[in-house]
Structure to design on (575 residues):
């Protein structure tokens, strides 16, 4: 009978050595900036709008989410920085939409991890802005992949009409939210909705397909509000009279239950989720107990430098993520620029793929070295075989990226690296096991794709404050753009001072634009990453995601560890 024997990995920080003083100072600066920007987003349109909400007898969106969560449990937001730095509407009346006016988060409710989608009633009464539908749909897609319950906290006055052309019509426009409601229902994913206030047009449709719909006395659901009806039909009506709890609970049957206020609605939602039973995660631990990492979460920032020119040991990163710093490396000695293996997160098995930094022996040329952080033929084959085995065994895969791209040049092409890369791309594109991607530092070129970047459909993609996501660095791209004006050493090839100045300015402008575009907040704003997290939060997010992967029963293949394909792979490669 095959056994999974996990071995100690990593070293105490005293033996490893901390990152440089300069790197630690930079990391603190970036962490402080992340905290400040999170706080600004969380405040919505500010204290004035929060107080106005409370004067109406309603809770703010974050008060609702926190009251819904199990006491003492973590709340894991995603999509915090969607629309960050953007303003909408016409001058001089432009407005911002913090977090696109909606909170999406993973929240433990009555013992089950749920995907919570909650309109921010402090931002234009919960209106839908450009990218609000995409953000809601992204959360629904995650819930559908993992089959975790969805909870809607609805308080939505419909589209932000000045920007309706960017929200209403497209394939992922507002109507696709209702498509996802339907697909979730068809897949048997529980959906529970609490209706707390203005729910007009799309906001009124959003809760209807849910299994349970609970309305407060202040809530109403209408296709069109009183103002529009009065204008169209000259009738003197109120929105509560048109579509309040009196109508939808007792006459139309569009809602199931009426409750007096927000706290009562949240309690009824908790009770409904509690009827679903417990998580299957303890079953899939196979007798193991949840265990913490061997070292504090904060140490990850001490072993992974903020400065891209500083190297680090990837095994030290893994040691600070897996339970008790215990890990089984799979296919060791093959493609040393990459590490693949299995560890536990909170007692549950997960596969890990991480780029390794440094210089490594060239397998075909004794005495030669080649740089890590790049994918070569052997490493690509190793990752593809490991990814296929994890998918066969039903083991979720965590991809930890710090990659500059694929190898290039005559040798790479002769060895058929394109073909090996295509094999890996095919594998990751067809995997059914959940994949979670973390962009630790650099995520560049086709390497970003090969390591299960967002185009390859991971359930979640996280960035850190030091993430840089782009095809190539700004300086490299500037050299490529102005290559015909440069000599073989990439120096400007002209003696004309005016032309030299123009080329220098052009290259500097290109470099600055690309460097700005690589900023993780820019990526998060346009939804190229799901969330930016502190390095100290990576383990916590992985705990949540891996447990969500194992929470449901019978929704995907999950082999018991005795019959893993990984055992055969290990044996046949001499381990």
């Amino acid at each position: 009978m095959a056994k999974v024997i996990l071995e100690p990995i990593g070293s105490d920080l005293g033996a490893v050595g901390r990152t440089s003083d300069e790197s630690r100072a930079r990391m603190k600066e970036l962490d402080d900036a992340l905290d400040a920007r999170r706080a600004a987003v969380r405040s919505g349109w500010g204290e004035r709008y929060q107080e106005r909400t409370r004067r109406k007898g309603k809770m703010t969106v974050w008060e609702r989410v926190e009251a819904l969560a199990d006491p003492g449990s973590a709340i894991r937001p995603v999509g915090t920085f969607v629309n960050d730095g953007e303003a909408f509407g016409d001058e001089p009346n432009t407005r911002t939409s913090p977090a696109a006016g909606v909170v999406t988060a993973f929240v433990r409710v009555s013992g089950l991890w749920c995907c919570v989608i909650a309109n921010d009633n402090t931002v234009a009464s919960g209106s839908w802005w450009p990218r609000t539908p995409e953000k809601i749909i992204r959360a629904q897609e995650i819930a559908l992949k993992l089959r975790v319950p969805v909870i809607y906290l609805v308080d939505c006055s419909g589209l932000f009409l000045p920007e309706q052309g960017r929200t209403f019509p497209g394939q992922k426009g507002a109507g696709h939210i209702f498509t996802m409601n339907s697909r979730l229902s068809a897949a048997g994913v529980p959906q529970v909705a609490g209706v707390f206030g203005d729910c007009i047009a799309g906001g009124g449709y959003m809760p209807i397909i849910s299994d349970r719909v609970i309305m407060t006395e202040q809530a109403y659901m209408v296709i069109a509000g009183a103002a529009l009806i009065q204008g169209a039909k000259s009738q003197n009506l109120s929105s509560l009279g048109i579509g309040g709890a009196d109508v939808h609970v007792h006459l139309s049957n569009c809602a199931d239950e009426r409750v007096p206020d927000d706290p009562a609605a949240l309690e009824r939602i908790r009770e409904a989720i509690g009827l679903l039973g417990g998580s299957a995660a303890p079953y899939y631990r196979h007798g193991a107990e949840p265990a913490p990492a061997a070292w504090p979460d904060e140490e990850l920032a001490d072993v992974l430098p903020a400065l891209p020119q500083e190297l680090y040991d990837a095994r030290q990163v893994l040691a600070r993520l897996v339970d008790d710093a215990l890990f089984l490396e799979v296919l060791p000695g093959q493609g040393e620029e990459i590490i693949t293996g299995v560890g536990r997160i909170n007692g549950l098995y997960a596969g890990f793929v991480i780029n390794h930094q440094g210089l490594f022996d060239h397998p075909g040329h004794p005495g030669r070295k080649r740089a890590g952080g790049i994918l070569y033929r052997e490493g690509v084959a190793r990752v593809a075989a490991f990814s296929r085995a994890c998918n066969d065994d039903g083991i979720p895969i965590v991809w930890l990226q710090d990659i500059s791209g694929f190898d290039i040049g005559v040798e790479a092409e002769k060895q058929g690296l394109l073909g090996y890369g295509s094999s890996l791309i095919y594998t990751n594109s067809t995997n059914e096991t959940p994949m979670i991607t973390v962009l630790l530092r650099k995520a560049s070129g086709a390497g970003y794709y090969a390591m299960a970047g967002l185009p390859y459909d991971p359930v979640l993609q996280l960035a850190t404050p030091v993430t840089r996501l782009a095809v190539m660095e700004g300086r490299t791209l500037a050299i490529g753009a102005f290559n015909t004006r440069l000599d073989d050493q990439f120096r400007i090839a002209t003696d004309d001072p005016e032309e030299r100045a123009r080329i220098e300015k052009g290259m500097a402008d290109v470099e600055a634009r690309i460097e700005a575009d690589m900023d993780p907040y820019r990526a998060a704003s346009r939804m190229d990453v799901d969330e930016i997290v502190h390095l100290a939060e990576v383990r916590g997010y992985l705990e949540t995601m891996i447990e969500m992967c194992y929470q449901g029963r019978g929704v995907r293949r999950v082999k018991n560890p005795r019959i893993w394909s990984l055992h055969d792979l290990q044996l046949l490669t001499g381990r």
